[in-house]
Each structure stands twice: as C-alpha cells, then as structure tokens.
Amino acid sequence: MLPGLILGGMYALVAMGLTLQYGVARIMNLSYGEFLVAAALATFFLYTGLGVSPLLGLLIAVPAAYVLNWAIYQLLLVPLVRRAKNRDMLEVDSILATFGMLFVVQGLAHVLVGGQYYSYSYLSIPLSILGSTVALNRLIALLFAALIGLALYFALTRTRAGMAIRAVAVDPVSAGLVAIDVRRASAFAFALGGALVAAAGVLVSVFLTLNASMGVVFTTKALIVVIMGGVGNLLGALLAGLVLGLAETAVARLIDPGLTLAANFALFLIVLLWRPTGLFGGAAR
Amino acid sequence: MPGTLRNTLAVAAAIAALGTAPAVFGQQAPTAIKIGWAISKTGPYVGGASITTLPAYQVWVKDVNAAGGIMLKSLGKKLPVQVTEYDDRSNSDEMIKGIERLATQDKVDFILPPWGTAFNLAAGPILNRYGYPHLAVTATTDRAPELAKRWPNSFWFLGTSTQGAHALVDVLTKLRTEGKIGSNIALISVADQFGIELATAGRAAFKKAKFNLAYDKSYPLGLQDMQPILTEAMRSNADVFVAFSYPPDTFAITAQARLLNYNPKIFYTAVGTAFPVFKQKFGASIEGQMGIGGINPQSQEFKDYLKRHAETTGGSEPDRWANPVTYASLQILQQAIERVGRIDRAAVIKEIQTGSFDTIVGKVKLQNNLRVDGWQVGQWQGGEYYGLYPENLPGAHKILFPKPAWTK
Fold this sequence. Notes:
The structure holds 2 protein chains of 2 kinds. By secondary structure, chain A is mainly α. Chain A contains 11 helices and 2 strands. Chain A has a two-stranded antiparallel ribbon with strand order 1-2. In chain A, β1 (126-129) and β2 (132-135) form a beta hairpin. By secondary structure, chain B is α/β, with parallel strands linked by helices. The radius of gyration of chain B is 23 Å and the shape is elongated. Classes of the chains: A mainly alpha, B alpha/beta.
C-alpha cells in the first residue's frame, strides 16, 4: 500500500504543474517533461559538482524556473494568446509552439550534458513503516508533493488571487468582465506551473535514472494524470496520481509486472468513459 | 519559397559533386581517408550510443590522427582520417538515409555502424549492398551466425544472447556443484528486444541445467519502480537473483534491492552494470554484483585506453563491456587497411575475415566473422569490473562468493 502511495505521490507531483499550465493558462505544454528533466539534470550537477544538496537545490531551481517560465510566456506565448480567437485555437497553437520548444530545450540539454544516463545517491536510506520498506528520499518527495499540493489548494481556494485564477480556468471571458486581468493571471499560472515542474524535477532526480531524452515520458504521464483528474483541478491531479500509483503497484504485485502500463491505460479509459471531463472535471464545454 | 530552397540545395549538391569529381577520376591522390557514421545523438538511443559507441569512435580518430594517420603502402605515406557524422535521431529511417548519403554523396571510404542491435540489423543489408565492412559491435543476437553468412561483410563482436545466457548458467552450475548454491533462481527481465532474447535463451539454459525458476516475471521497458517485483523475488528465497535488465532499470533494481536489504548469494543485472556512472552512483556498495560483459583491468593496453578516453571525452570513463570492444574493432579495421595498403574495401573485408589482430582487448581472430572469446560475465570487485567468464581468457578473475552484504 505505502509503495503505491509513494509512486502515486510522484505522479501527482509531476502532474500538478501541467494542470496549472493547461487548466488555467490554456497552454498545452508539450515541452513540459523537458523542463522537468532539465531541472533534474541541473540538480545532478549541483549535487555531484558543487555539493549542493537537492533540497537546497529546490531553493535555486524553483525561483529560476518561475522567472524563466514567466519570460517564456511573455515573449513566446503572449503573441499566440493575442492572435487566438478562442480557446481551441490557442490550444492548437500552443501545442505547435511548445512542440518546437521541446526540441530547443532537449537540444540545449544534449549540447550541454550529452546523452548519457545520470544518477546519484541521496538519502537512499531504508525506513520501515507499517510493515513495508520505503526509501527516505521517496518519502521526502511524497511529503513535498503533499505539501505543495495542499499549499496550492489553499492558495487557490482561500485567496483573492487564487479565486481569480480559478475564475480564469472556468471561463476567461467572464473573468475579464469582472475586472480580472486574464493575461496576468494566465502568466502567473504558467510561471507557477513551471516552478512546480522544476520542483518535481529536483525531487525525482533523487531516485530516478535520467538522460536528456527522457522528457516525453514525464509529459505523457503528466497528461494522463491531468486529464484523468480533470483539467485545471489540483485535487483531481493529486487523486488521479495516487489512484494510478496504487493500481500500478497492486497489479505488479498481485497479477504481473508486465501489465502495469496496460493497467494504467485501462484505468485511464474507464475514467474517461465514465466521466469524459475527468474525476473532478466540470461539465463538458 | 520551397522551390527556391530546393534549387539552392540542388546547386549545393551539384557543387559538392563537382568538388569530389577529381578524386573519383583518380587524377588526384586522396589526401585523407574519409570515415563516416550515422549515430543516435538525440532520442531514446542516445543513452547507449553516447557511452559505448561515440566516445570509442572519437578516441580512435584522435589516436589515428595523432599518429599521423593510417599508413597506405600504395601511396607510401600516412593519410589522416576525416570524419563525416550524421545524427540518426534514434530513428531507423534516418539512420538508413544517413548511411545512404555517406555511401552515395559523401562517398566515404569506410562507414562505422550505428548503436544498438536493432539498428545494426537494419543497417546490415545496405552496408552489404554498398560493400562496406560492417563492424557490428553493439549487436547481440542469436541470429549473428546466420547473418554473418548472409552478409559476409558483417562482423559480430559481442557473441550471441545464448552465449551470454549459457555463460551465466555455466558459472552458476559450477557453484552448485561445489555445493555453494541451491537450484532455485529468481529471474526478472525487461520486455524489450535484448531482454526478451536473453530471457528466452536463459530459461532454456536454466531448464537444461536443471535449475528451477522460483520466480520468473517480465516488466515493461521504462519501469523504475521495482519494489513490488523485488519483494516477490525475495519471497522466493532463491540463492540466485538474475535480472536481464536495461540501464535505467538496472540502476533502479540495484538501488531498491539495497534499500530492501535483498542480498541473495548471487546478484546479477545485465546491461548498465558495466557503466561508469553505475560505480559512481553506488560506490562500494556494489561489491560482488555480477553483470554482463567485463574487462581485464590489469592489461596495460586497457589502462592506456582509459587515460586517452578520459582526455578525449573530458574526464569520462568507458563502460566495461562494449566500449573497449568498439575501439578494438576500429584497431582491427585500421590494421586491415594497412595490411592491404590501399583503399580497397573488398580486400579489407577479406583481411578482417582471415587475419589476426592485436587490440586493447587482446588478440582477436574472428571465426566465421564472429568473435567468440569475449567476456560474458563480469563482477564488481574493489571498484573495478573484472571479467570472470570464460575462465580461460587471459586475466580471468576469481569469483567473489557469496556477494557481501550491501553497505549502507
């Protein structure tokens, strides 16, 4: 049970940034996973080269990613937002633009660090909890995921800025009518999503082996979680991530490890058939 | 616009063709030996290509040119090596296109192969058609003997999957005869080409040697959460744990086995165990872990190679399996060209088939285009990855048994 929760927590962590970027800013960011891998690789070099602990690395990577993503939104995506006549058009345009960005980020990573695998050991200490053994580093990642998720949830539901963001996620046109600066809220959401994905990258680098080409793995996983949870819904992403993690671990343990991927997608299909807009999604547009 | 672009390209191609014309007509003696390769510099295959294959190519080019080039008796002088490189983006179509362009447009003298079993199999027909020697190093397949017959220009250096599996079974059988291990084995394998081939060959070999598979499961490529599988393998209480795994999962299996304190007497993981980053990550805790490949670290040639590799690649180490063999295959190519004394690919192929060569992995003489005496099983001992099997190879190390406890 616990290993499943921990895996699920990682999925949720990886997906939370995308749910902001896609759900609020309406940018279907295909280069999402590349940014995650970039943060993970940066952490590797900070740790092995300069001896900066990954948790300290969070303090560097997260603000840097926020600024970078804010700049990307302003420079690259605002023209698309201006040009788009409606949400669907923005979605298509952003898919194309971020698809291009994927190659830019990946290419840069290849030039800088090459293509080999990177992996290091940090806090790989066994803990025995409720009869199962878990790694301290994974537990920390789970705790951070929960912490970030809860903090965001409260920020979105209890603060004025959060309410503005949720309003934009539900209906940007009406949000504009009630004096919400939609573009600013979207830029904020996109940058915040970027900061979250950097946090995820830092945390998964502690226990995963990565190379510069593996971004797409995280993009697809995040997409499944986001769509399953309901686009733009943080709690949905958290729940969907946990459900997927539990299902994967249960299937590997009880049926066959070869079926974990199949179980993942089967669950995804069932949820979509039952609720086409995801677990916590609103009514279909 | 596309029309203009096409025109420009056509003009460029025409100029390029004109530029190479004199060499084609032999009015001018060649000033360099042109070597080309198409390799994965991006995409999923880059992880393997950039550890095993590309650095070996780079070190070789640098070594050859530092020594003044390759000696051609027909010209009475050494010619430097000139490289044309394409990125196949881990896409087999791109790889084939790259090789085609190297052969027909760049008209290179020799083509070095791409990385990986699948790509070497895909490159086989085209290299055969154009008559280039095909030094298939990073290709481990049971079809190697058959392919070597079909494409006499192809050379296979790492043995077959069956050979790899049999080698492991031989090591285990010996331990069992000595009464050190029981007959139970916990086997897991990645559900991807090489993993499947190894597991299929392994199951047959285990069965034949009367080993019992107490646990036998495969997992999808890319899975890094190994805890459920390892917990089940642990429950089987087998003395031997075998994972026919790929690099990222090899890392995950090792990290999580250590975490669970799963410490069977024999702990074997396949591809990735011989990677330098593996040692870098786990340090002393992998003492006694076994895997595929191996080297003889005592050999002076290998020690020198380590040094040159680090100088060329900015401090990185080669893996302890196919990377040195890749370099050796290029030494073979160079020696074959020098013995022939001119750029004559058919003669070079014949020389590689029949000749005997001195390389950094020892003397190599191919049998029916196959190298049969490579390291099949290795083990980490004191921070180095020693070749254990075949035991009759020079430098074969004694096995460390049982595997020591994981260090914290």
